[in-house]
Design brief:
Helix content is about 85%, strand content about 0%. The chain is mainly alpha-helical. It folds into 2 domains: about 30 residues; about 35 residues.
Amino acid sequence: MSAWSLLAVPMCLAIVVGLLWGVAWFEQRMLSPRSMILYSARSRHAGPDTVEILIAAQSERLLKSFKR
């Protein structure tokens, strides 16, 4: 076994951990109900009816997660 094959195992594990951390960060920061509500409320492209429907749906999800 060469030194590169021994180093490949920790490097692959580090890549997988980094990828999982990045996806978790993206989901919490960008796709969370709170961030979706804030983004839609600040958006000028969506109509008021669309924003109201999205906020109602996301706030229900947010309130259910707080109840747990």
